[in-house]
Amino acid sequence: MNPISNIWNHPKTSAAGLLIAIVTIAGVLSQQGISLGTAGNGSVVTLISGLATALLGLLARDPGEPTSSSGTTAKLGAWALIALLLPLPFVTGCNGVTVAQDIVNWTPALQSAVATVDSTAALLAPADAPIFAAATAGFDAGSNLLVGQAKAYLANPSAGVLAQMQAQVVAFQQQVNAALLQAARITDAKSQQHALAAIQGVGTIVSSILALVQTISSKASVEQMATDSTIKLAVVRPYLDENKAASIVANHYGEPVELARVQVAQAEFSAARAGF
Fold first, then answer.
1. Same-domain check for residues 181 and 262
2. Main-chain phi, psi angles of 232, to 5 degrees
3. Bridge partners (DSSP) listed for residue 42
4. Could you say which DSSP state residue 52 is in?
5. pTM for the full model?
6. Does residue 120 sit in the same domain as residue 254?
7. Which residues contact 137 (CB under 8 A, 6 or more apart)?
8. 153 contacts 96 by C-beta, under 8 angstroms
């Protein structure tokens, strides 16, 4: 096939392929520590990768795309390809301070999710409410401590404060995982549904924060965090709702649910691969 005529006949596909190649190469260069100089607060490689990703997003959201199922699948596939080409798209290029700020930005959603947990016991069957209350008893303290540490890191981005934040996000994640397992034992179907949904609201945010903390942690620190995670993601995965998680992430970052869904899946894969 003539490559020139192919580009002429399929300009959008060819442009997407070129942008994908740029993002892929940029990712390899970043992994090898090659920056090609600085650009603002980041590197030239990061800037190029970000611009290419943004253009891929515009292609994927082309208003001229068909509304048929094949068109929808194509868009979702494009979002998936964009997301999977990057380590964690919604935190790409972050440093410790911007990660801490993002954690602080999660505060309203986290507090709202914890408040939902606090009020959910009233919706459960009388026999189930005490089980749920006991399983989620530490959520208020855990969320307040994590947000407080993120604010402390913003004020003093030191290794010591980071270590405290690493330990707390893992501890909170373990609280959530344990609560999910407890809620799964509730036999009343409606009670179980309410309980799992409320706990996952907190869990999705904690998982997002864990993904953020991972990006600024050393390999040794991540290994220690994973070791401290005794209740693994694979154990609680059957009780999680992918659509709910994607909706929470999409609302926080102001992005399409399709992209958020892929990002959530990728974050879970990254966490599992790291040993969480």
1. yes
2. -80, 160
3. 39
4. H
5. 0.69
6. yes
7. none
8. yes
**Under 8 Å CB-to-CB from 28, ≥6 apart: which residues?**
none
Q: How far, in Å, CA of 255 to CA of 245, rounded? A: 13
Q: Are residues 100 and 80 in the same domain?
A: no
Write the pLDDT tens digit of every residue in 63-96.
Answer: 444 444 444 444 444 444 444 444 444 444 456 7
CA–CA dist 223, 70 (Å, integer): 42
For residues 121 and 213, state if they share a domain.
yes
DSSP string, 2-44: -HHHHHHH-HHHHHHHHHHHHHHHHHHHHHTT---SEETTEEH
More confident residue, 14 or 158: 158
Q: Is residue 91 part of a domain?
A: no
CA distances in angstroms from 177 to 102, 104, 147, 163, 256, listed in the order given: 23, 22, 19, 21, 27
Q: Is residue 120 part of a domain?
A: yes
Q: Which amino acid is at 272?
A: A
Q: Which domain holds residue 19?
A: 3-86
Q: How many CB atoms lie within 10 A of CB 266?
A: 19
pLDDT band for position 62 (cuts 50, 70, 90): very low
Indicate whether 71 and 153 sit together in one domain: no
C-beta pairs of 9-13 under 8 Å, 24+ apart in sequence = 12/59, 12/62
- Rounded to whole angstroms, the Cα distance separating 62 from 127 reads 52
Structural domain total, the chain = 2
The verdict on 65 and 123 lying in the same domain is no
**Cα-Cα-Cα-Cα dihedral sign, residues 273, 80, 193, 146:** positive
* Last residue of one domain, picked from the residues 86, 119, 137: 86
Q: What angle do CA 103, 274, 27 make, to 5 degrees?
A: 75
Q: What residue ranges in the chain does DSSP mark as E strands?
A: 38-39, 42-43
> Is residue 256 a contact partner of residue 61, using CB atoms and an 8 Å limit?
yes
pLDDT at 61 over 70: no
